[in-house]
Amino acid sequence: MRRADRVRCLLSLFIAPLLAGAGVPTERYFPPSELASDLDDSLREGFARHFAGIDEPALFAMPGVRYAVRVAISRCTGVTILRIERKSDGEITSNFRKFSFLDTGINPKPISSVVKKLTPNELARLSAEVQRQDFFTLDLPPTMLTGGNTIWMIEVFDGTKYHAAFELSQDPGTPFGDIAAVAAEIAHVTY
Fold first, then answer.
1. Could you give the CA distance from residue 107 to residue 99 in angstroms, rounded to a whole number?
2. Contacts of 85 (CB under 8 A, 6+ apart)
3. pLDDT per residue as tens digits for the range 160-172
């Protein structure tokens, strides 16, 4: 990747979202109890600004939602979101949306949006994987960010507890990668 592309990528991931979403409080999307290190704070702030720019709800505060998992991917070229939720009335859906950036991280343009109904068995598979990986104790902050990184975030809300974790990849065989893979598989999508 050329140096200019790396700079543009860093701008799109962190600086431009700050400018585009100035005034979006991180707590709108992440409870204060979730804020840990300075790097976590920076990542959460960047995702909060992306979410505000695409009208994505706060996972832990959606009315009528009893269980939800969101996989969010921030790339230099755009943002991808997979949100799976079970509502109080029992309806289970997946919402998969992709956005590209018109400018350096500003003005996300929708590329695709697919909403599907899921079965209780499909959600049970994802919920079991979240539990098997002990997601609520998972803490995988990236150790170093450089130009060109793709940043993955998984959030889970089980009706009472909320947790978010970040990673630079979703490698198979890792707790993070396995949860992201099951989510994509039951939603029938490719990140």
1. 9
2. 62, 65, 67, 68, 69, 92, 93, 95
3. 999 988 888 778 8
Half-sphere exposure of 177 (CA within 13 A, CB side): 7
Which pTM was predicted?
A: 0.81
Domain spans of the chain?
3-187
Per-state percent for the chain, helix, strand, coil, to nearest 5: 40, 30, 35
pLDDT at 158 over 50: yes
- Rounded to 5 degrees, φ, ψ at 24 are -85, 110
Query: What distance lies between CA 6 and its chain's CA centroid?
Result: 22
Written as six digits, the tokens of 14 are: 């962190």
In whole angstroms, how far apart are CA 77 and each of 8, 50, 102? 10, 12, 9
Q: What digits encode the pLDDT tens for the residues 28-80?
A: 787 766 655 555 677 778 888 888 888 899 998 899 999 999 999 988 888 99
Is there a contact between 176 and 140 (Cβ–Cβ < 8 Å)?
yes
* Separation between Cα atoms, residue 142 and residue 181, nearest integer Å: 19
CA angle 152, 53, 86 (to 5 degrees): 60
Q: Are 144 and 43 in contact (CB under 8 A)?
A: no
